[in-house]
Specification:
Immunoglobulin-like; 10-stranded mixed β-sheet; 3 domains; alpha+beta; Cathepsin B, Chain A; 9-stranded mixed β-sheet; 22 strands; globular
């Protein structure tokens, strides 16, 4: 051994001793904190246990970084969720890990030393919703959280980010699978590292739901009727040491104080008065990556989102509702069209609208078969279901919906596709095109008249024709089917001589019946 190497050996040994002492001191410090948290649990009479976890040994800075959820504005065009007045959630338990004997959640993930809980909370709910919407608990789409971190602009590792930005990115852009861009807990990974065929591998959602009610009963209703929820939990430092039981805050260091953390709400337990959450701190935290949180800890923060209508980003079929315009006090019938679909066997479609502007009076079958429906005008939703043992392929009308205009204004006509399956209950990819209903001021001095469900307009109630001609309501092509005849027993809306004369001189009567001199002669449309 040379003299130079002999001089290095004591230095190396000294460094190794210092590192060992540092590791021992860190272990002792962590152990002291665990003991302090355990004492606080006992003093508070709380029902949970503390110990070393996958994140308990993190530095103060890293712990704060892990809780990076920011409270942002409501997502653009969010769906406001209000529980129906007659919807009562019974006392009991509910857990998306065991619904109909199946686990609909995806695996627990680890966000690592990056403040990306705002991403993982959103993808955790999104992935579970894909399983639920597809009626396949084993689908387990694995989102690329790195793609969202690198491409969405919603935040970073150091300062955290906005849950609403993640959800809007999923809805507006779509997110590919994990293998397309693997997670590295690093916000400097360029977005261009995403695989080139990411759009063919991506999933998206149609809408984002936001509740207006933040009581325990409201959250239970959303969990059962919609699915897992993205929630922001205001946490103290003791959460990092949680190993089981029903968590409630009992301790935090002065340096940590509190922070906001994005998680997934997956269930409730009334007998134990607690929520069930999925975290993103690996399976070595809490109860295999999950935790139970005392009622009241979530409700007070009011930062809750629901993913609605998941589907592949690229889909051929389209479900669309047409725009319409109608004066206040009148009714209009609007078709819901399905185009370019293959082997459709089940369609469960909900129509959301502003019930203070319009209400649904009736739903009639389209040309694909019988539609069962349920109208809830108070919350502004109509639920329509069609099932068959055969399949439908091509383009057709799903249903005709008749809306009554009750007040001047604008109402969205938003479709929510809850089920869209072939006969093997395999999800059929589809796009959605929503519409708008414009309610114009009421028209005085005219009789009320409607477009018949078979697409024809009767001159007996000619108001609809007059309003159409002056641009106040829309009639589609199928409503122009009445044909001119030599004896003028029927009027064609496209090229009737009578209508042309009326356009030149609106003071003349559109129809003069020889029987009674009025506008009462009906049109027979076969």
């Amino acid at each position: 051994m040379t003299g130079k190497n002999t001089m290095k050996l004591p230095v190396i040994l000294a460094v190794m001793v210092l590192l060992s002492l540092f590791a021992v001191s860190q272990t002792l410090a962590e152990g002291n904190v665990v003991s302090e948290v355990q004492r606080a649990i006992g003093d508070a009479g709380a029902s949970w246990t503390a110990g070393e976890t996958s994140v308990s040994g993190y530095s103060l800075e890293d712990k704060l970084r892990l809780c990076g959820a920011k409270i942002g504005p409501l997502p653009a065009d969010a769906v406001i969720l209000t529980p129906p007045a007659d919807r009562k959630v019974p006392y009991g338990t509910f857990d998306w890990r065991n619904v109909s004997g199946e686990d609909w959640m995806t695996s627990v993930k680890e966000q690592g030393p990056c403040g990306s809980c705002w991403v993982f909370g959103a993808t955790g709910a999104f992935e579970a919703q894909i399983n639920i919407d597809s009626n396949d608990p084993g689908m387990d789409f694995d989102s690329s959280e790195q793609n969202i971190l690198s491409c969405s602009g919603g935040g970073d590792c150091e300062e955290g980010g906005w849950v609403n930005a993640t959800l809007e990115y999923i809805r507006d852009i779509g997110v590919p699978d994990e293998e397309c861009l693997r997670y590295r807990a690093n916000d400097s990974i360029p977005c261009n590292d995403t695989c080139s065929d990411w759009q063919d591998r991506a999933w998206t959602c149609e809408r984002i739901g936001v509740p207006v009610c933040h009581r325990t009963e409201c959250y239970k209703w959303i969990l059962e009727d919609y699915g897992p929820m993205v929630v922001v939990l205001n946490v103290t430092e003791d959460l990092f040491y949680y190993t089981g039981g029903i968590y409630e805050s009992v301790w935090s260091s002065d340096e940590f104080a509190e922070a906001d953390h994005g998680v997934v709400l997956v269930g409730y337990d009334d007998p134990n008065e607690c929520w069930i959450i999925k975290n993103s701190w690996s399976p070595f935290w809490g109860e295999n990556g999950y935790g139970r949180i005392r009622y009241g800890e979530l409700e007070k923060h009011e930062e809750v989102y629901v993913v609605i209508g998941t589907r592949p980003l690229h889909a051929d079929a389209t479900v669309a509702i047409e725009n319409a315009s109608v004066p206040e006090g009148f009714s209009v019938t609007v078709p819901i069209n399905i185009t370019e679909v293959t082997d459709l066997c089940t369609a469960n479609i909900w129509l959301h609208y502003n019930s203070s502007v319009a209400t649904v009076e009736n739903v009639v079958d389209g040309n694909m078969g019988h539609v069962t429906y349920h109208i809830e005008n108070d919350p502004g939703v109509t639920k329509m279901v069609w099932n068959t043992t055969d399949t439908e392929t091509g383009d057709f009308v799903f249903a005709y919906v008749t809306l009554k205009a009750v007040a001047e204004g604008t109402s969205p006509l938003d479709l929510e596709v809850r089920e869209f399956y072939d006969c093997d209950t395999v999800d059929i990819g589809h796009n959605i095109v929503n519409g708008t209903l414009e309610v114009t001021p009421s028209v005085s001095g005219l009789m009320e008249g409607d477009v018949n469900m078979d697409g024809c307009v009767s001159l007996k109630d000619s108001t609809a024709i007059k309003l159409h001609l002056v641009g106040r309501i829309d009639l589609n092509e199928s409503q122009h089917r009445c044909a001119d005849t030599l004896d003028d027993s029927e009027v064609n809306l496209k090229d009737s001589t009578f209508i042309r004369r009326w356009l030149v001189d609106p003071s003349m009567e559109l129809w003069q019946s020889p029987e009674d001199g009025g506008m009462e002669k009906p049109v027979v449309c076969e």
